[in-house]
Structures are given as structure tokens and as C-alpha cells.
Prior knowledge:
Layout: H1 2-21, E1 24-29, E2 43-44, E3 47-48, H2 49-59, E4 64-69, H3 72-80, E5 84-87, H4 95-106, E6 114-117, H5 127-135, E7 144-150, E8 164-168, E9 177-184, E10 196-205, H6 206-214, H7 219-224, H8 228-233, E11 238-242, H9 253-264
Parallel strand pairs: 1-4, 1-6, 4-5, 7-11
Antiparallel strand pairs: 2-3, 6-10, 7-10, 8-9, 9-11
Amino acid sequence: xxxxxxxxxxxxxxxxxxxxxxxxxxxxxxxxxxxxxxxxxxxxxxxxxxxxxxxxxxxxxxxxxxxxxxxxxxxxxxxxxxxxxxxxxxxxxxxxxxxxxxxxxxxxxxxxxxxxxxxxxxxxxxxxxxxxxxxxxxxxxxxxxxxxxxxxxxxxxxxxxxxxxxxxxxxxxxxxxxxxxxxxxxxxxxxxxxxxxxxxxxxxxxxxxxxxxxxxxxxxxxxxxxxxxxxxxxxxxxxxxxxxxxxxxxxxxxxxxxxxxxxxx
Length: 265
């Protein structure tokens, strides 16, 4: 009964928040990948990878889904699959810049009050995770919502490619959300207790996204090479929700094969 009640409460939050904020899911995509050339168009069971990502986003049923493309080839592939896409300047420095540029093109009047940034290399993403990130925006002081999962592999604790989220979460009280205090590539925090693997999926209140993109990179952002530290330096509040698994990001040919196996099932 407790589980059912929790699910119903979260469903009500999502429905109310959707009415208030009219969210849009934006998926930045560009061809310039050194480890996996032409990555967005990589074939997975007869569909380009970017189309799989678009379909996962549509399955979240939160609202409009648009792919923010750096190249016309991606736009063509998305539109051929019946999706919506918009071209952006290929020289934009990051996915955050790309989604804001797309948003200004397709929604200049500000109808969408919330923006969810789903990376274009997550073809096996569980659509529920998108809702979890979005639901964090129900907090009146929350500017950005993101996700993390417990690190279970010992090697990942010291792997700099596994970004750690440091959040005010009391694991002893079974808390599932908390405010992010920092993000780092190093093993942190010190002492006994769980470590969190940050998942780079973000839900923004629109003013927060605009403020973030308008600001120059922060000192710690440049040092850690982590864009989200700019948001913290600006005083924006990032809340983190704990989820069960880290979605597979496709960066290499081996990752692509793993995605093909997962989607075949």
C-alpha cells in the first residue's frame, strides 16, 4: 500500500507540474565524436541512435520532444522518423548552449517554463528517469534537477571518468533526494558511506538555464571539467534524486554493441 501511495503521489506531482510548467525535452546532437564518428546516425536495429533516444524521450509522455541538431544530416534523420528537429550553430561549445539556442528558435515567447536536457547518446534510457528529474522542479527553491546512482563497483570510486555527486542525503533515513553541494572527479566525500555516480540528465527551470548559459565558465568548472559547477558557483540550487541504475552512454564501438544487445531484448 505504501508503494502504491508513493507512486500515486508522484503521478499527481508530475501531472500538476506538467500543467504549470509545460515542459519540453530537448536532445542536443552533433556529429563530431572522435571515438565514434557520426555517432547520432549509428545504426541500431535499422534506426539511427538519435531516433532511439527521441523515442525514449517521447515515452516519458511529458510533452514536446525536439532534437537540437548541429548538422542537417541529423535533422533529416529525425524528421524522416516523424520527429521534430531544429538546426543550431555547429560551433556552439556545449549541449547546454545548443538546447538554449534551439529553445529560443522554437519558443521565443517562453511558453515552455521547464527544459529537460537528455543527452543524445542514451538510446537505452529508461523514460521514467526523465520524469524523476523533472519532478524535482516541484521544489520552490530548486533551479535544476539531476540524477545519481549508488556506486557499487569498487574501481569506479577512484575512476575520474565517473563523476561523483556530493549531496545532502541521509542514507540512514532512506532519503531519495537532496541538495547537491558539489560534483567532482575525485573520490569524495571522505569517510564511511555510499558514493554517488552522477548521471548527466538535467531538468531546468527556464530562467536557470538562461542564467547558466549566459555566464562564463567558473574557476572550478574549468579545473574539474564539469559544467554543472558553474551553476553552483552562480548560486543556483541543484537537487539530486537517487535512481537504481546508470543508463548506458554510447561513446565507443563497444558501447554501441552493448546498446544493440540491450535493445534487441
